[in-house]
Amino acid sequence: MATTEFSWDNSDNQSIVLEIKGDRLKLSDDVLINNIRWFIAFRWVLIAALIFFEVLMLLASDSLAQMGISEHQKWPIVIIVVLGFANIAYTYALDHFQSSKYHSPSINLWMQIIVDLICLSVVVHYIGSTSTPISFFYVLHIALACIFFSTRESLYVTILVCVMDTLVIVIENFLITQTSLSILMSSHFSLESISRDNAVLWMFFLDILFFVVWYVVSRLSLTVRAHERHLLDAYKQINQAQVEKDQYAVLMTHQLKSPLDAIRSKINLIKGGYCGEASAGVNEALDKIDNRAQSMSSLILDLLRLERLKDTCLNTAVFKSVDIQTILQKCIDKLTPVANSKHVVLNVSIDNFVCKVIPDQLEILLENIITNAIIYSHDNASIEITSEVNQLNRSASIIITDHGIGIENKDLPNIFNEYFYSPRAAMHNKASSGIGLSIVRIAAENNKLKIKVTSEPGAGTSFTIIFNQIEFSLEKKETQLVSLAKFNLS
Amino acid sequence: MTARIAHVDDDSDIREAVEQILRKNGYEVQSYVSMQDFIDSLQNDANRPDLAILDVMVESMDAGLTAYAQIHKRYPQIQTIFLTSLGDMIRPYFEDGSHEWVCIMEKPVEPVSLLATINDRLKRREK
Fold it and tell me: What is the pTM assigned to this prediction?
């Protein structure tokens, strides 16, 4: 007996991060929210660093003073408190307020930038606007604004930064020293005026730097967004093409199948006695014609099914929570006539569970596997459909076992290949199109399911469909205990 | 009373086959080549059928579906069966594809199952 496990990795489609609002391109709210959370986390780190610095000051103020670092002011504590409360407020607003005119991720981000700029200005003021390079930290806010806001909004941020920086420099160099000017000696006066000239120069160059940074980063950001927009357009075009392709496939299927349907309708009329009595020989010939036409019809429909499954962009491919019993019941209802025609009994005994799948596709998958089980069974045989639910790791499997012709060991790894043809199987089922299991494969791939196949030639085959991440709702558990789904259809 | 059945299909062979089966089984049948012909015929109360058998792809991709939407809205008492080459493949086109409202049969025409489905639908109408 040979067993092979099949799993197909289907990487997730990346979601599109941009949305077009009017003619301006902005980042979608989801992306903004993710980044807002990241900023908040980053700010907590900054607050922690400030607290650490303050504690260090308290514990080792003497040794630090010896190294030339002295700290007597209370501003770091105020900054810690303000940033801390602001951070809590941003998080609360993000978690508890719906997006509205007065609260949106964009407004949240604006608030963060304004509060941060005010805090930074305080820090710059106390550390030294012209004597230290601390003012360059303003550049960070400009760059972030260019990335997350539109060009116009980021320009507002840049102007705000320039105003704040100018204010800080003016207050520090012109207003605060003014009181002391009256008592300064003339020699000091000239020194003071040099430092003022330097401050004006410093202010001028800083403001120019801010605008240059804004220009360069916003240009870059525009280029990137333009590319993203092209991608979005291309994505839309692909989607549209998929829909058109599906329509074309439907049309071709219809055109190919219609003549066969007309032929088979007439055959049915003769067989039903609507065109007078036909001889046994004629009836036999008609049966053969009908069989061949039927194989061709199902091949045509299977091709359409395969095409459709490959196009996961179609609107119908949406994951939903469904209970397995309902889907299985539907398949069995549909296949009972086929089973009856071969006198095959379907024994179903499963524990119900809920799984997140594309319902139509799971139905096609189960239908194909059960159909195969029926087709490759001998007459008057039975097929067992059972389940195994593992509550611990939240996985479950549906096992479909037949006692038919089985699959040869050398064929087993290839059964899911498109148009794989096994002469032994074809001899048993002349209507085989060779794409039934390819359909199963694509459905499994789309639904992130694994399939294990165990088979012994001449003794039968067992298909195990493995579901990961199944759900149990409380009520479902109860009904499960009460009614262990057991039905026997023949 | 004889039940009146309308059948719309652009394929003459299918039209003939359905007509032959239904007439032999005592139904009154009116066949139409296009959906518009059928919808126009509904203006006249005397022409209104008890049940309509519609093809889906007549003239255009979804003529049958749009006609169905119109008929179902204006004459909800008319039962409808879709008889299409594509069978269940058209079910995704229905927003609420419940079996209660949408009855889809796959071609070819098979006398026994066609008559059984018609009987079942007509019984629903009486209810």
Answer: 0.61
Buried/exposed code over B35-53 (b: 16+ C-beta within 10 A; e: otherwise): beebbeebeeeeeebbbbb
Contact A328, A348 (CB under 8 A): yes
- DSSP H or E stretch at residue B32: strand B28-32
Q: What residue ranges define each of the domains in chain B, with the CATH number in brackets?
A: 4-126 (3.40.50.2300)
Sign of the CA dihedral A270, A271, A274, A275? positive
Give per-residue pLDDT as tens, A343-399: 999 999 988 889 888 888 898 899 999 999 999 999 999 999 999 988 888 889 999
Q: Which of residues 6-45 of B touch A (CB under 8 A)?
A: 11, 13-14, 17, 20-21, 24
Q: Most A CBs within 10 Å: which of B56, B58, B59, B85, as the mutation test of the A interface?
A: B85
The full DSSP string for A187-248 is HHHHHHHHHHHHHHHHHHHHHHHHHHHHHHHHHHHHHHHHHHHHHHHHHHHHHHHHHHHHHH
CA dist., res. B19 & res. B33, Å (int): 13
Residue A272: list chain B partners with CB under 8 A. 21, 111-112
B61 chain-A contacts, CB cut-off 8 A: 247, 250-251
Phi/psi at A188 (5° precision)? -65, -35
Of B57, B87, B108, which has the smallest distance from its Cβ to A268's Cβ? Answer: B108
Considering the domain A316-489 in this protein, what is its CATH number? 3.30.565.10
**Cβ-nearest to B107 among A261, A267, A304:** A261
Q: Where are the domains of chain A?
A: 316-489
The ipTM is: 0.91
